[in-house]
Structure formats: C-alpha cells, structure tokens
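Minutes, project check-in

Agenda point 3 was the complex the collaborators sent over. CS summarized: two entities, 473 residues total, and the question is how they sit relative to each other. Sequences were read into the notes so everyone works from the same version.
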Amino acid sequence: MATKSERASSPDAAQPPGPGRFEEIYDANVVPIYRFIYARVGNAPDAEDLTAQVFMRAVEQLDTTRQNAQIVSWLYRVSQNAIADYWRAFYRLPVIGTDQVAPGWEPADTTEPAPASGGAQGSAAAGEERAKRQVASLLRRLPANYRRVLELRFIQRLTVAETADRMGITRSNAKVLQYRALRKAALVGEGADG
Amino acid sequence: MADVPREPPDEIEDAERFEQYLDALISGGRPSPDDVGSDQAEMARTAAELAAATSVSQSRARGADPDPAFIEQLRLRMRQADEGIASVQAPLPLRSAPARPPADAPSGLARVRISRRGLLQAGAGAAVGLAAGALGMATLRPGPTQRPLGGDSPLVKGEGFWQEVALLANVPPGSAIRFSTASFAGYVVNDGGQIRALSSVCTHMGCTLYYRPDWKDLRCPCHGASFDLKGQLANGRDRWRETGGYAGDASAYPVTLPALVRPEVKVEDGEIYVWTAQV
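CS then shared the predicted structure for the full assembly.
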C-alpha cells in the first residue's frame, strides 16, 4: 500500500482539507488499522465491522486538516475503544460507546506501534514475526497435551472431530481438553503481561 | 492418549458451549458472545488472539489481511458519506453511535460455517476480480462471453451431493445468508418464500457480491452491478428503461451481464440443502 512521502507531512504542516484528502487517509491507514483490530478479535467478520465503524466515525468526526501523526493516533485510539467495547460484550460489561475512552479498562496489549508514516509493509512483517514468537512462547509453557490440542486446532485448523481422532480421544474429551488448555493459556498469558 | 480425567458434568457443558465459540472463530465466521460465559471471556480473548496470530503464520488463511473487496466497498461507503457531509456542511444525524455498521455491509449478514477451502476459493475469486476491477469503469466491458443463464430453473446438476448449508428458520423472507461449499460460494436467499441459491461471484469480472437488505439485491463492489433475488441483472439498461431508475443509482449499469449461476436447492425438515458438484 502506497503511503504519502515524508515531505508531504513535515511535522508542523497541517494538511489542506479538500476532496480526496479523506481518501488519502483511508488508503494510508485502512490496512494497518484492520490488522491491528484483527489481531485482537481474531476473526474477519468482526474485524471488518470494527474497521468500518472506525472509518465511518472518522468521516463524521475526524478533523482532516490535522497533521498525519495526529490523525493516525486518533484512528488507533478510536480502534482501541471499539475493540474494548467489543470485548465488553463478552465480559457482560455495559458498552459505553466508542466515542468515549473507557476509564480503567483497556485491552491487555495496547502497545501496537502505530505506523506513523513508514507504511504498512515493514510493520506488518514485524507484527507477524512478533505474533509467531508470542504463540510459540505461549505454547511452550503449556503441558504437552494442552499444547498438542491447541496446535491441532489453531495452527493446523482441524475440527474437534479431526483433533480427537489425531489424539486418539473422544470428541467430548477433546472439547474438555481444549477448554482446559485455553483456560490455562489465558492464565499463562496474564502472568506474562503482569 | 487417555490422560483426560473424568470431567464433572458442568465442565463438559461449558466445554461444549465454548466449542461453539471456537468453531465459529477457527472456521473464520463470526463468534457470538452468547456462547461465552463472563468467566470465560479471558479464554475467548486468548483464543481470539491465538487465532489471529496463527492465521498470520498461515499465509493461506483468510483474515489477517483484509479482503480486498471489503476495502473497496468500505471506500465507496465512506466516499458517499464524505460527499454527503461535505455537501450539507454539517454532520448528518444518522449513525447515532450504532453498535454495528449499517445493514448493507456484507459483514453484517448472518454467516454460516464456511470451509477453509471454500474461503480460499472465494477469496481467490475476489482477488482476481478486484485486480481486473481496478481497471475502472472506463474499461467496463462484458466478461467472458457466456450464454445468459436465464430462466428460473435450477442449473447446477450432474455428479454431486446435497450439502446442508443453512436452517430455513435463519433465512426469513427478504433475507440472504452466505454459504460456501467445497466447490461453490454463494448466498441462500428467500425471495418472498421462494428459496434459491445464487453464486456470490459477479458475472462481470468475478468480484464477490454483497447483499443489500434494503434493495433486496446482490451488489458488486467493483462496478456496481446489482442482481435481483432470481439472479438476474437488476440495474441494466433494459430494466432501467422499464422502471425509470434503480435503487437511487445515478445511471444504469452499462453492460448486459449473464445471470448468476444457480445451484439446485431443496428444503427438508427445516434445513436448506444445495446441490454441490463433486470435486
């Protein structure tokens, strides 16, 4: 995805408004924002919905005359709130609306480097590497049968039935095993953060 | 490996229910919070992040990178909204913080389980379609010459089998549900009680169509062709002449397109089956 040249966004120069300016912003940011969201919700339909929410909100509210760096940080902030609201539904917490910052409740990993101007390519590759390392390190810290069931389901993308066959256990056992594995993984993950 | 100890019954229930969430997540569908207890939310998040990370590592899995058709379609939506706002010089009263985007987003549709292989095929079609679509309206021309597949008779026959794709109860009149089989990606639509299966591949250049409940049509994000729920081009010049316009479009779709491919469908015991060619 092509990005604007550095010169076009010298630190103090506010961007002129006008037709096409919004689309410039869209082109430069839609893929990184989608990836940022996808990495936190794990499925394309929801990632698409949230990405659409962010940019539709941007059409309404974003001041396009601001500097690129400010715009990028605005987009990530709104994305983060949208993700927080998404997970609120799972935690049965009241949704507060993506335009307000959730006080005291933030997604666990909010330190995605916002690609201010460098373009999506490099940071995407780096993000992939980081994600791979995180998965490997998480799996390493689980007992062997937990690791195995998560590998079969997530990395090989097998169904429960196929996973059960591979492991020589019943489907019901496979479901319980993956359930326990994820419960453990969630604890391990928390431990790593804190 | 019989090292799973005996589970208390409610853990089995929890694990069963959580599998509903996992299955949707791993197959690329939309998982529902209803399958996740609030004490399992942390697990759901771990699973979501794991699914995202492993989908990145599997370059062939859909999801980590946005669907090009989605990017283009959102661009059009935003362009329209942007122009609307600019022309009024004031924020529009619409979108009072909707939890979900407007109903015409394809991602707002109910999704059914989709096989990974099917996704790959559908995704490849969309990518090819968009690459071609990038040529723009100026080069709009008929796709590969085909005999128009008109009429109202089921078309895809031959070697194959019935594949269950949706529950009838999930497809009320005027709605559409996306489905995918090993050889085919499409929509099951309910056209006033009549159930049909329609290909989701535009017959112009192969972009992936999305359903617009307001207009009850399948719309192409690339050049704006619309197909009605019989699979026929709905905004071509002929129809435009008959009805004097279409769905607020500025002009008729300039090219005559073949109808969408329609596999045979049957409804049995409240389930919808689509005839799927053997592959």
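Noted in discussion: Confidence is low (pLDDT under 50) at residues 87-153 of chain B.
Follow-up: revisit at the next meeting once the mutant set is ready.
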